[in-house]
Amino acid sequence: MNYPNKKENSQSSFINYSKRGMTLESDINASNKYYLDNDIALIYKKPTPIKVVKVDYNKRINTRITEAYYEVPSTTDYNGIYKGKYIDFEAKETKSKTSFTLNNIHKHQIVHLKKVLEHGGISFLIIRFTTIGKTFLIFTKDFISYINNNDRKSIPLTYIEEKGYLLKDGYNPIIDYIKILDNYIGDEL
């Protein structure tokens, strides 16, 4: 229908607001809940270790932490078990349309992911390019290979598209990264 001073409503101008406000972390948390509820995998978000320095005991029901600091550097965001394999991964978002900046991941996190791999676990990164609306899973071996063989301070999207796996948005789970792990585990056995 056409209204005065309004553009014609058409399918080509449709904007999908269904994911507005959703972050990669909340999408992964919802996916992990689905995996848990359906007895598929046990994957959990690791809490960040903090040391509480000051607490405001104004009222018992309104007690709040007013000062705290990170006790030790956190390793990665998620870990758990799937089909008898230890899983450990980091989730990152970037606004870049062309690359993933290596400054987005800490050196101790890279070392941790590499150690998990060396001990027979499965480790990877899930990277969401928010501006272009694409999410990828890239295994640690490919991520480390790029870092070891290039002097760049970022990994081009083209490399991630070539070596990684596109994770299409779904309903349940929202991000089905387990589907990629099924193929990976199958190739290992």
Give the SSE map.
Elements: H1 24-37, E1 42-45, E2 50-56, E3 64-70, E4 78-82, E5 85-94, E6 99-101, H2 107-118, E7 122-129, E8 134-139, H3 140-149, E9 154-156, H4 157-163, E10 165-166, H5 178-188
Parallel strand pairs: 5-7
Antiparallel strand pairs: 1-4, 2-3, 4-5, 6-9, 7-8, 8-10
Structural notes for this entry:
With 189 residues, the protein is of the alpha+beta class. The protein has one domain: Trna Endonuclease, Chain: A, domain 1. It is built from 5 helices and 10 strands. The strands form 3 sheets. A 6-stranded mixed β-sheet has the order 1-4-5-7-8-10, sandwiched between helices. A two-stranded antiparallel sheet has the order 2-3. The chain has a two-stranded antiparallel sheet with strand order 6-9. The longest helix has 14 residues, at 24-37. The protein is globular, with a radius of gyration of 20 Å. The relative contact order is 0.14.
